[in-house]
């Protein structure tokens, strides 16, 4: 029974991020909320309290069923047109962002929560209107018109128009290069702070014989593992594991990705395999280094001959150095311990020099002949080295200083 509960917990945890980050999650949730609201308002409309309210305020009454239907139909049709126009504009903006920057930034733009909420409100209004339309009755026994609900629908439609006006402003602002770069910087820094919090570099891992390999169950991007479950497995089997790759590494199926210090059962081996997060898409949440790579790609794309925008590349460089300022003084754990302070998991993270070489050097390869990039790189390195001397960066600084003279 405990094993079944553990499997269910792992499945929920593994699927949670994918479901919540889906573009359909918020729209579906909000549309369902509007459907429930429409049912409740219609019930209130035909309740004794609703009837009394309409008797006291005669202007709340709608005596003509066709008028009510026309109002509801106009609102539904208008909001539908608004929805189509709004998200046609989103697609145009996304196409522009993809062509001018990097395809990798699209996931963040598509998954933007505000856009999902706006889409949900529009769809919810349409659902509210259509359900309300079915409640209008003009039969022999009498005319049944949910007048209060109809007036509420009108108010919602007016709110939708103001949301549309703000949405136009928001979408035009959200694709500005500086906004996108700032967003990537903020998310990357936030997740890096969660991973890199040691003020002193941890000691090197003592020599442990990890002789038994565990292979990946499928091809994908390694983004980490379920820490609590893996610690529990290690304690139950009295073993230690070493993760051979850092998050963000693309691994093939059947590749050795974990090593264990002792032979374990096939059941335990399969459980360890299930703790791995392997996906086809990278996320900054699972791997902060992906944020560094996104900024590098934006800078390189901006420096390509077809775009030739060194200003955007300079913005990306500044964001990278802002991240370097934090990473150079804070370090990630290389061991993960259980509640008894016993080391169970040994992990691998890229060091500062590796991150610098993999992000800044490709930008320099593309932009070293551009005066703007030369000056920007020189200025950023000079400031950085005055705060945090680094042998490798000092050597690079001397190289670019020679080239710019």
From TrEMBL:
- Alphabetized UniProt keyword annotations: Membrane, Transmembrane, Transmembrane helix
Is the keyword Oxidoreductase assigned to this protein? no
Q: Which Pfam families match?
A: DUF2254
Q: Where are the transmembrane segments?
A: 23-44, 71-94, 114-136, 142-168
Q: What is this protein called?
A: DUF2254 domain-containing protein
Asked whether the UniProt record includes Endoplasmic reticulum among its keywords, one would answer no
UniProt xrefs under InterPro entries: DUF2254_membrane
């Amino acid at each position: 029974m405990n094993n079944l509960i553990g499997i269910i917990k792992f499945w929920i945890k593994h699927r949670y991020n994918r479901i919540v980050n889906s573009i359909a999650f918020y729209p579906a949730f909000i549309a369902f909320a509007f459907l429930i609201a429409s049912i409740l308002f219609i019930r209130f409309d035909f309740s004794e309290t609703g009837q009394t309210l309409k008797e006291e305020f005669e202007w709340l009454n709608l005596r003509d069923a066709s008028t009510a239907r026309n109002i509801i139909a106009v609102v539904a049709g208008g909001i539908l047109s608004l929805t189509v126009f709004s998200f046609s504009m989103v697609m145009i903006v996304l196409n522009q962002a993809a062509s001018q920057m990097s395809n990798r930034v699209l996931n963040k733009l598509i998954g933007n929560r505000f856009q999902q909420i706006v889409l949900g409100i529009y769809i919810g209004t349409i659902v509210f209107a259509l359900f309300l339309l079915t409640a209008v009755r003009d039969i022999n026994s009498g005319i049944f018109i949910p007048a209060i609900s109809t007036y509420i629908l009108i108010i919602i439609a007016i709110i939708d128009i103001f949301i549309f006006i703000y949405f136009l402003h928001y979408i035009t602002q959200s694709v500005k290069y500086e906004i996108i770069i700032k967003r990537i910087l903020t998310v990357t820094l936030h997740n890096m702070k969660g991973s890199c919090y040691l003020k002193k570099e941890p000691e090197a891992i003592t020599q442990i014989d990890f002789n038994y390999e565990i292979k990946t169950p499928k091809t994908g991007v390694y983004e980490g593992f379920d820490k609590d479950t893996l610690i529990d497995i290690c304690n139950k089997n009295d073993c230690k594991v070493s993760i051979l790759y850092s998050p963000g590494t693309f691994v093939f199926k059947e590749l050795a990705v974990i090593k264990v210090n002792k032979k374990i059962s096939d059941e335990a081996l399969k459980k360890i395999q299930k703790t791995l997060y392997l996906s086809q898409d990278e996320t900054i949440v699972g791997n902060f280094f992906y944020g560094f790579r996104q900024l590098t790609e934006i800078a390189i794309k901006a420096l390509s001959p077809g775009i030739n925008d060194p200003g955007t590349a300079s913005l990306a460089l500044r964001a990278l150095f802002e991240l370097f300022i934090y990473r150079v003084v804070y370090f990630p754990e290389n061991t993960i311990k259980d509640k008894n302070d016993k080391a169970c998991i040994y992990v691998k993270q890229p060091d500062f020099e590796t991150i610098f070489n993999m992000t800044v050097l490709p930008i320099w390869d593309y932009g070293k002949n551009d005066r703007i990039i030369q000056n920007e790189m020189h200025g950023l390195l000079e400031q950085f080295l005055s705060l945090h001397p680094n042998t490798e960066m000092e050597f690079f600084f001397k190289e670019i200083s020679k080239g710019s003279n």
